Amino acid sequence: MKYPTGIKVKVEKLICYSNRGMCLEDDINLSNQYYLDKNIAIIHKKPTPIQVTKVDFKNKNKTIIKEAFFKTPSTTDYNGLYKGKYIDFEAKETKSRTSFPLNNIHEHQIKHIEDILNHNGIAFIIIRFSILNETYLMLGDVLISFIQNFKAKSIPLSYIKTNSFIIEEKYHPRMDYIKVIDKIYFGGDKNEKK
Amino acid sequence: MKYPTGIKVKVEKLICYSNRGMCLEDDINLSNQYYLDKNIAIIHKKPTPIQVTKVDFKNKNKTIIKEAFFKTPSTTDYNGLYKGKYIDFEAKETKSRTSFPLNNIHEHQIKHIEDILNHNGIAFIIIRFSILNETYLMLGDVLISFIQNFKAKSIPLSYIKTNSFIIEEKYHPRMDYIKVIDKIYFGGDKNEKK
Fold it and tell me: Would A123 disulfide with which of A82, A140, A155, B17, CB 3.0-4.6 Å?
């Protein structure tokens, strides 16, 4: 049986929700590595929280985990430091063409974003509309005020376009979200300064 | 065969390296929860990094990890935010009565502490001498300069006593390391202010 040549791309789409076969998470991890290498910012993805229930110590060189479960994260996935400021964010992609479903973000992640804002940290979410190939940065206070004011299940793309910042996709770094943060909080443009 | 009544404590000691059966990690996690509840600081332990190699999706309600391995952490264990400042630290206990062995801290964790200091974050290590029941906070720059100047395999307790801050053990929070940070960086004493 022959498949049309597009089939592989389609499979990648299903896994990564991306037109280019590259997950948002991969893009951000590569960007963070770029920021680290260039000494621009120190931002790391937190490991996925896993509850380990069975462990095999028989192998002296390497402990093998035999049973474990994924746990719900209590904070956002990424945090770190840029120009002396605490940075904290969550990154999510959606296959929707029209809105970002809020069930993508857990309630305690929203609480965490509120806490960060209250303690003078920089908090935001990165939203990718995979099929449209558009990625936005929405500041934490905009997200919180949307949730409080609209009691909606999702944020319309039109609202995001008006109230967020588009993140350029480049070769290096793939997702230059620090450029957006720099403009908002430090009034600068890294590229112009150099 | 009869064991002396002290045997259980001894077992706990072996696991936790603690006279009181309470690990440093537990003490810090409880303190972080206290800081969070009292809206003093937002500091979380990062999940242990685990490489998942086999997953069972058969159970629709819960994905079971069937094989996984512990990975070496690339950053420190704890980070967060206090009074708008980025906080980053590693916590270790030792059974030694005389010195803190530096092989407790990975090379890339030291690199990470250096990076944090260069970007104006607050970085430190918490060292507990379990048998002595003494816990110290050593600032990142003191640690880095010790490593660079002495090329030693461990930091003598006498050096730690002179160049670090003792952390009081209390009921709530168990390890009030934020009080130490507050005194050093914000010139304040939380308790006196309140």
Answer: A140
